[in-house]
Amino acid sequence: MAVNKSVAGLFSGPKTCFLRKLSGSASSRLDLSGIFAPIPTPFNSDESLAFDKLEHNLGVWQKIPLRGYLVQGSNGEFKLLKDDERVEMVRRSRHFISKDKLLLAGSACESTRATIEMSNLMADAGADAVLIINPCYYKSAMNEETLLKYFWRVADECRVPVVLYNMPANTGIDLSVPLITKLAKHPNIAGLKDSGADVRELILVDQIYLDGNFLI
Fold first, then answer.
1. How far is CA 133 from CA 19, 95, 175, in A?
2. CA distances for 97 relative to 6, 33, 59, 147, angstroms
3. Which of 53, 63, 139, 193 is the catalytic position?
4. Cα atoms found within 13 Å of the Cα of residue 78, Cβ hemisphere only
5. What tens digit of pLDDT does each residue of 102-153 get?
6. For 53, phi and psi rounded to 5 degrees?
7. How far apart are CA 37 and CA 153, in angstroms?
8. Quick check: 106 and 131 in contact, CB under 8 A?
């Protein structure tokens, strides 16, 4: 999907993203249209989080007409952070940005229970929605039925809308079109961030069920 050249020319920070809304009540109560920036996590030389640099970076990006920000996507290096650091990144980011900007937060963990707990902690810290990537350590066990149960239960128990995250290059698992269309029926699943390489799948998803814009 093409990016408006006037916006692309202004934006020299993190990769620009588009979000596809899934049909359902969550997407109707949270408008995810527009451009979101998946921001990097800044570190100090001792590997502690550099919140002063985070504040500086967000201050620069606030000058760009973005819809919002994604904290702890893949380039946010969430796998390298402790649980309390992950939550604090959300809390500080919410404090540093204006109230009209949406904040999405990557909250996935390897277990269903931990993902639900992290999602709700991030919601309490100020996330408007959470981004959930699929578990992948026990990849051979991650069949479609297992993934459906995982995402469905997380969406059931999460206090803010859920955005699915398909990132097969990192997880080794590509969420299928049938799985996505089933999950789209959940009232608390609001969108999809798809970083897969097969554009044909996106077209199929669009033809079968979805409406809106994509986070790619």
1. 15, 25, 10
2. 22, 18, 8, 34
3. 193
4. 27
5. 999 999 999 999 999 999 999 999 999 999 988 888 778 789 999 999 999 9
6. -70, -35
7. 28
8. yes
Distance CA 203, CA 190 (A): 18
pLDDT (tens digit, 9 = 90+) per residue, 72-111?
Answer: 988 888 888 999 999 999 999 999 999 999 999 999 999 9
Residue 15 a catalytic site member = no
- Contact assessment for residue 54 and residue 96, using Cβ atoms and an 8 Å cutoff: yes
Q: Are 191 and 210 in contact (CB under 8 A)?
A: no
